[in-house]
Amino acid sequence: MANKFKSNSLWQMAWIRLKRNRLAMISLGLILFATLIAILGSLIRPDKTPMCNDMLVQIGGKKPGFTVQVLNVRKNQIIQQPGFLGRLFFGGVENEYVVIPISSYKFVDDEIEVIEFKGSKKRHNVVSKKYKLADVAYPLSLTSDVNRKANILSFYTITGQKVVTSIEDLQQYVIENNLETRKYWLGTDRHGRDMLSRLMAGTLVSLAVGFISVFISMFIGTAFGAIGGYFRGRIDDFIIWLINVVWSIPTLLLVIAITLALGKGFWQVFVAVGLTMWVEVARVVRGQFLSLREKEFVEAGKALGFSNFRIIFKHVLPNVIGPIIVLSAADFASAIIMEAGLSFLGIGAQSPMASWGSMIRDNNDFIYTKSSILAILPGLAIMIMVLAFIILGNGLRDALDVKSKPQS
Question: In this predicted model, what pLDDT tens digit does every residue of 308-364 receive, in sequence order?
Fold first, then answer.
């Protein structure tokens, strides 16, 4: 067994050690699963509209498992739907129907009469409305009249197609295509939007902010740390001074200041979070470079006439990748928390974009009611995702420790 490990590279040995850490592998699987949900977007969400913004205020604040029947009334317009790639990430399919929650329905000749759902069985809340079956089932031309002869209806759609059908066939068509029973597995928020879909969409926001902000912080921090640790002198003194200045400012306060300066929005959060997390990376990279610059392979590179650029990026930096990877996992968790905090305060991702922080803000009124789960769910999502990155970071730290030996 010992010979087997000696034949492996350091990265292969690190992967073997990581695989033996069950908690780290579970966390890695959870992160990959969340990434898959984020990438597939509206292809797998129950609410396939862009940003999961299908609002039905009549059913706002409902508990998990809530079921309601809806009538889908066809819009009298042509809606261009995106292809496969257009539905990934933040894409979605615009709803071709006006969705009306109903308590009951009945057919009256060539019309459908519905009792709209009002969340209460009180008699004074009962509202009855009638809709033409043709208008429910097809996108009618604005100049088209529904002609009726005996039991036959004829009309033109917005595309110029003439439809001739019997009332019985049209009623059956509406039953099969326009009447639907919806189940909200995690309930609805105060605006009547599907909580499960918005939680899934919030995964993309959190992971995107984490990935891009960590990339920004790693790029800036690695550059400053490498330059300061390798060259030392006045350059290092200036970088240390800059690190101390940024470090002295509370992180959340600095993020809020940068966000307000750049403006509220989703993309601004990337820059704001990335510009505040680079100091930790710079400090760690600088310490590693101060140690490695005294090694024999650096002296040999200088003796061979290699440029400083080549020594830094080709010989020294690869030896610092391990600590950077471990630190990036911790920074990923911090970025998720900061994005959620900014969205909760209203200066992060803006409505109607689904963000776990804004979901807590929108549903915090339910905390003291029987529907408190609506505010707890996004908080649990934040906690689980942050915990997964922290555990994975700890696992990577142990796996990349060259002093540890794989167990047989």
Answer: 889 998 889 888 988 898 899 999 999 999 999 888 988 888 888 889 999 999 888
For residues 94 and 54, give the distance between their C-alpha atoms in angstroms, rounded to a whole number. Answer: 9
Q: Assess contact for 42 and 86: CB atoms under 8 A.
A: no
Answer whether 0.70 is exceeded by the pTM: yes
Return the C-alpha torsion angle 180, 181, 186, 192, nearest 10.
60
CB 42 within 8 A of CB 48: yes
What are the pLDDT digits (tens) for 90-145? 778 889 999 999 999 999 988 999 999 977 555 555 778 999 999 999 998 876 66
Q: Within its chain, how far is the Cα of 246 from the centroid?
A: 29
- Separation of alpha carbons 272 and 121, rounded Å: 49
Which residues neighbour 230 within 8 Å (Cβ) at sequence distance 6 or greater? 289, 293, 308, 311, 312, 316
Write the DSSP assignment of 138-158 as a string of letters: S-B-TT---EEETTEEEEEBT
Cα angle, residue 158 at apex, residues 155 and 162 outer, rounded to 5°: 35
Q: Tell me how far apart the alpha carbons of residues 82 and 66 are, in angstroms, rounded to a whole number.
A: 30
CA-closest candidate to residue 312, choices 336, 344, 286: 286
Ordered structural domains, the chain, with CATH: 2-36+196-399 (1.10.3720.10), 57-188 (no CATH)
Helix (H) or strand (E) holding 354: none
Helix 251-262 vs helix 266-292: crossing angle, to nearest 10: 130
Query: What SS3 class is residue 120?
Result: coil
Q: Which of 280, 265, 270 is nearest to 220 (CA)?
A: 280
Q: Per DSSP, what are the bridge partners of residue 99?
A: 72
**In DSSP terms, which residues pair with 166 in a beta bridge?**
152
Cα(392)–Cα(46) distance, integer angstroms:
30
- Does pLDDT of 68 surpass 90? yes
- Closest CA relative to residue 377, chosen from 67, 63, 91, 66: 63
Q: Is 245 exposed, middle or buried (0-12, 13-18, 19+ CB in 10 A)?
A: exposed
Phi, psi (rounded to 5 degrees) for 139: -80, 95
